[in-house]
Amino acid sequence: MTVYILAQLRFTDEAAYRRYQSRFFDVFRRFDGRFLVADERPEVLEGDWDRDKVVLMSFPDAEAARRFHESPEYQAIAVDRKAGADAIVLQVRGFEGGGSDSA
Fold this sequence. Notes:
The protein is α+β, with helices and mostly antiparallel strands.
């Protein structure tokens, strides 16, 4: 089942975050994921949103997402992400259709 990693970020040290960002794709491309969204100007349709950026990635399954997120390569660059942004990072399962679990 496809899973997604969704991150909502509030920048705290933009220089540190930009260092992370400059090295991210060199690491990400080694894993079996697809980069879907990186938006520093999302349009809020409802509610209050106190973040600066949203990121969305997809992976074929939870194991692939975990391999990426827990890899030594990603953890090495994540030091700058953690120094540069307060983040909420979620792993969510894709919708397989049918049933009563819909929105």
